[in-house]
Structures are given as structure tokens and as C-alpha cells.
Amino acid sequence: MARATNSPASRKRHKKVLKYAKGYFGSKSKLFRYAKEAVQHAWQYAYIDRKKKKANRRALWIVRLNAACRAAGLSYSRFIEGLNAAKIELDRKVLSDLAIRDEVAFAGLVQQAQAALKAKAAAAKTA
Predict the structure, then answer these.
(1) Contact, 52 vs 88, CB < 8 A?
(2) Other CB atoms closer than 10 Å to residue 96's CB: what's the count?
(3) Which ranges of 3-127 would DSSP assign to H, the alpha helix?
(4) For the chain, first and last CA: distance in Å?
(5) Domains of the chain by range and CATH?
(6) Which residues touch 93 (CB under 8 Å, ≥6 apart)?
(7) Based on C-alpha coordinates, what's the Rg of the chain?
(8) pLDDT tens readout for residues 6-59
(9) What is the pLDDT of residues 66-117, one digit of tens each?
């Protein structure tokens, strides 16, 4: 008896993979065996790079904050420490946006952070 191959389902699966591989170079867009491998790798890279994109954004926000803080006479790490001491809970994205778009509000945050750092240092001296 002949071997059953379920040809319609196989063809559908092959066409789907080749559709995803459209635009790839050479046999990776034409032949199922190579297209399947290329598509799997592409999906792995896409998954990994979605995570990397978030890390890159955060790094950009931190660089922007550091530049704005240093212009105000404070380092980034001391600024974050001061915000934590002042119980101000803004994330780095919002802080970066404030530093770029609203310099007056950001200067106020820097002043609050510096005041909280001074209060923290005074409390540490007395303790």
C-alpha cells in the first residue's frame, strides 16, 4: 500500500512558510527546506530584539537624564538617590521627557532631590 503524505496540508504549510520568507535572498525565499530555517532564525532574532529594544530605550533615557543632571550640577546616580529619598516615584522615561521638554519642572525636581540628599546626610550625621 502506498504511503499517505497528506499533500493538501503539507502544501498549505509549505506555502505559508514561503510567504513568510518572501523577500529573502536566493534559495531562502524559494525552497521550503531553506526558507523554513531562515524564517525560524528570523523569528528568534525578532523575539530577542524586542527585548533589546526595551533595554536600548532605557539606556537612552539614562544618558539623557545624566546629561541634564550634570548641567544642573548633580550626577545621575545622586539624582536618582535624591528622588528616592524624597519619595518621588517617576520612571526614567517620564524624567527624560521632562528634562527635554520642560526644563523648569526638571530643575524643580533636581532641587527637591538635592534637598532630600541634604536631609538624608544630616540625619546620618545625627544617628
Answers:
(1) no
(2) 23
(3) 7-20, 32-71, 76-85, 92-101, 103-126
(4) 90
(5) 10-126 (1.10.1900.20)
(6) 57, 61
(7) 27
(8) 899 999 999 999 999 999 999 999 999 999 999 999 999 999 999 999 999 999
(9) 999 999 999 999 999 999 999 999 999 999 999 999 999 999 999 999 999 9
To the nearest 10 degrees (0 to 180), the angle between helices 32-71 and 7-20 is: 30
Q: Which amino acid is located at 111 in the chain?
A: Q
Burial class (CB in 10 A: 0-12, 13-18, 19+), 86: middle
Burial of 58 (0-12, 13-18, 19+ CB in 10 A): middle
Grid coordinates standing for 86? Answer: 524624597
Rounded to whole angstroms, the Cα distance separating 113 from 87 reads 9
Q: Which three cell numbers stand for residue 92?
A: 526614567
Residue keyed to cell 528634562: 99
Per-residue cell: 81? 538617590
Spatial separation of the C-alpha atoms in residues 97 and 22, rounded to whole Å: 39
Using DSSP's 3-state secondary structure scheme, residue 72 falls into: coil
